[in-house]
Amino acid sequence: MKVKISHQGPLFSKIVAGCMNWGEWGVNLTVNQAQKLIMDCLDTNVTTFDHADIYGHYTTEALFGNAIRNKNALRQKIQLVTKCGIKLVTPNRPDNLITSYNTSKEYIIYSVEQSLINLKTSYIDLLLIHRPSPLMNPEEIAEAVTRLKNDGKILHFGVSNFTRTQFEMLNSFTPLVTNQIEVSALQLDPFLDGTLDQCITKKIRPMAYSVFAKGELFSKNPSDRKNRISKVVDKLAEKYEATSDQILISWILKHPSGIIPVIGSTKINRIQSAVKGLEIDINYEDWFMIWEASTGKQVP
Questions:
Q1: Could you tell me the pLDDT band of residue 50, with boundaries at 50, 70 and 90?
Q2: 0.85 exceeded by the pTM?
């Protein structure tokens, strides 16, 4: 149930649990509820958990950390991903005057040290720059990454939401093991703009968030485009004896870059369903049925 994210990268579960909605930005789990969800994920062979420092206005990492506090055996079974670089305006960071990006050496190191405190751990398995900044200095970022790796505070480094050229620039200064991007039947850009092609070339697995388009694919008031997709997905769900979400997972997994989906649900049955989606292998024509439904036209 684990895959190597790149040649020199970590072993991750094939489905990643996204933690953005665990705290104030979502269902506001208690520590005990978070602990149970972690254990339920492990029972489902989901061992990788995706965070960002800003989630829950800088509080969700601490929620998770309190759930694994003083549980060294549990920490050894899981892989932690977190992100930094975005500065939010929130009472929890009163010095932040506007939402902005900071990818300076000092801020990256500061952010990681705060995440280590919040997550109650001595190391982060994978650190990502959350979004590319127009002002990012690749030499400075590389210096921060080298120091953090040498200190054992991070094991691997990657990026999120980077374009091909931004990835190439930073990767030439420090090795990147993934690019976490938005991919879904409603977000087709990575299939066309070279982002996924680059992952294949670099032999890295991309991570994909919002694989259900932030729930829009299950909206009660769908657009014509979503209606077209839903009709095809429902038809395929019947054909493969699966659920709609499993078909959408299978559709993403079909791409040869080896996409690792990040599932943002806090409901264990939805995470379990996504894992079952790993067993489905839709054929090429069925894959293009969903593509055609999304674009509204046949391929040329």
A1: very high
A2: yes
